[in-house]
Amino acid sequence: MHSLSTLTVPSPLPAPATSNDDGFDAHAVRAALAQVLTSELFCKCTRLSRLLRYLVEKRLAGAGNALSEYSIGIEVFDRSPRSYHTGEDPIVRVQVGRLREKLQALYARDDFQGDIIFTVPKGSYVPLIAQRDTPAFRPARGNLLTLEPFSCIPPDSGSAAFTRGLDEEVSYQLFQEYGDTITLQTAGAGSAVQAGLLLQGSVRFAGERLRLSARLLRVSDRRLLWSSQSDRVGVPSIALQEELAIALCRSLPAGLLNMRETAGPQK
To answer: Residue 74 has what pLDDT?
Structure first.
């Protein structure tokens, strides 16, 4: 029987807000957006401003789950549906990366007075909307993340062994990210999850191809906060376990990684 490993990690940013979802009024969100777009850092950045407005409006319209690299390329950057291929044209990935950096720089300024802030987590195009300078926004110790052992599909002995090793590698890589903010506990199979967040997923095998699917749930209401898939081709190995675990941990939502630079283990 599998057991659950419970890790103490910094509290994440609250789930993305809409006009009627997490308590943020649409008018207040749009006012905060206008404050960002008219700021010194954004007022001359036409592309980034258009991108941020598009993402926030999609979130407010309840269409955040429909956001994709392809749709953003077509609707924001005017790529042609006939010729646009995300694998050949990285414009969306590049511009979203620049948007993350620009927002981080803006909110770090002493003269910025906004109450509502926007972030775009790595591995996602759905913006997070949060109240600034509140306990919900500030990272804090003590919020529990339960790592549920990944399921193995199909459950043959070789695949199961690789999946168990991946569980161990993910636990290790989480420690590398959070250092002494992690507390490991062991609960018997079937025990109630006492954590705020649950990380679960599966590993599917088809010949030399495998797919790791992961998702982050808020335990209180089972709300899906984030999901990711990674495909690899190759013989299952320790090196592949390490590669997948590092990619997974680094792609977790930004709010979960807020303390990485200050709380990581001493090298």
So the answer is: 95
Closest CA to 252 of 198, 185, 186, 196: 198
Q: What is the pLDDT of residue 5?
A: 54
Peptide bond connecting 135 to the previous residue in cis, omega within 30 degrees of 0: no
Q: Is the dihedral of CA 158, 164, 170, 175 positive or negative?
A: negative
Dihedral angle computed from the Cα positions of residues 229, 251, 148 and 209, in that order, rounded to the nearest 10 degrees = 30
Q: Which residues make Cβ contacts (< 8 Å) with residue 242, sequence separation at least 6?
A: 169, 173
- Domain borders along the chain are 4-13+138-263, 26-126
> What's phi and psi for 242, nearest 5 deg?
-65, -45
Q: Which two tokens stand for residue 240?
A: 């592949």
To the nearest whole number, what is the mean pLDDT of the chain?
Answer: 77
pLDDT for 255: 55
CATH number (1.10.3470, 2.60.40, 2.60.120, 3.40.50) of 4-13+138-263 reads 3.40.50
Pairing of strands 185-187, 4-9: antiparallel
Cβ proximity of 55 and 115 under 8 Å: no
Q: Which residue has the tokens 């905060």?
A: 32
Continuous segment of H or E residues that includes residue 251: helix 238-251
Residue among 186, 197, 188, 203 nearest 257 (CA): 197
The two tokens of residue 105 are: 């720089």
State residue 54's pLDDT score. Answer: 95
